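Honest question from a wet-lab person: if I give you the sequences of every part of a complex, can you actually get the arrangement of the whole thing, not just the pieces? Trying it with mine:
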Amino acid sequence: MDRRALLTSAVLAGATAFGSLAPETAFAQAAAQPVQPGEKDPNFAEGRVTGLVDTMLMVTGSDNTLWRIRITQGTSIWKLRPTTLDKVAVGDGLYARGARLADGTLAADAVWVNIVNLQVHIAALSRNTIHFDHRGKRVVGHVVPGTSAAVYNGTPAIGDMSMVQVGKHAQVIGAWLPDTNEIEIATLHTSA
Amino acid sequence: MTSLQPILLAAVLLWSARLKTFSKYAESSARRSPLARLLGDRRAVPAYRGVGVIEAAVAVLLLVRPSIGTWACAALGVGFVAYLAYGRLFAKEASCGCMSAQPSPIRARSFLRAFLVIALALVPVPVSLAGAGLVVAEALLFAALSTELDRHWLVPLRRLKARWTHPLASPGDFPVPVASSVEQLQRSSAYRELAPSLRSDLREHWDEGEWRLLLYSVTHAGVPASVVFAVPRLRYAPTDVRAAVVAESGETLATLHSAAQPEYAI
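Yes, you can. This is the full assembly:
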């Protein structure tokens, strides 16, 4: 990919520092508008996708707020893995952070689609599936080979899930499969 | 005595009757069984004990008058099948309550066991060495069909299988997960310097030789730009992480090398 080659050479070939970087000046930020206690953060949205128009996501919040979320070139989209807008579907749940524009839309910087973060117990294992007990309810976790990672005892994430044990406590970051009790596992934190 | 099977059947029925009449778990077992649904909670317990008494009576009959006992046992077996069918259809959550207080959902094996009782009652086995062997085999088959006994043999076997062939084990090597590279990135000084101006989460990643490249959005001097980080892919060396801020035009605005780790970051 041309763009990737350009970016790769920018970071790997650039032995000479382009002017000395003075982060204080170069990366100086306008102070973000602080959110008053009890107020809603205007730059954050959550809800279920109800429509998709070009690069605009129509989202209904859990408090029935209607959001229009603008996806730009610089928006990161996560759905189990960093992905693109065409993987987002109607019915997906999402969290988005960005900046509110004057027309009421939210220009998203980052969108996390279907992301869940669960504190669970590992109840059972089967072929590429981990059954979790989440507050007495069963959650089925699918291991996606090549994507799912496990963190054992806080050490760096690895792809080998074979040290997962039944009965252990775990924290799982995953992508919910909408309207089911199933998730795809992104990262599983557990002890071995 | 012309057949060995009545002894086996009597043993099974006495075992079953013991749970229903003398066991201290009889009441709770009755309330979990489909009888609770059929007769109501209050009448389920006496009915359950009544079934136990009938089973004991048939067992005695099998030993004393096998010719009548086998027919009574077959009739009892048919009753079991009807009872299981009722439970399967109308009380799906109920425990069979058949031979143990151990909760045992009604499944195909419960039906097979009831059919086995009927078959054993109707087919005689002559008193001989081969016949004795056959009865032992029947007893083992009966045990295999009893979910109540699973914890003694099936569960340990499954545990052993899970230990030897882990269901999540996959052959071959694993690619380094992105989560691992991101964690390494976050421990580098390049990331710490740029973090306040990062706007997005990870946008894209790709591999280039021994490097993994991670792309984020950033605000540089008030203008949106991209920052690409190069993280060592196969080794842990946060001090080697490099970054380049690239404008949308493709011009490199700044490059950054990680400094040595301060002690608090390690």
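Two things worth pointing out. The helical segments of chain A are 2-12, 23-26. The two ends of chain A are 40 Å apart (CA to CA).
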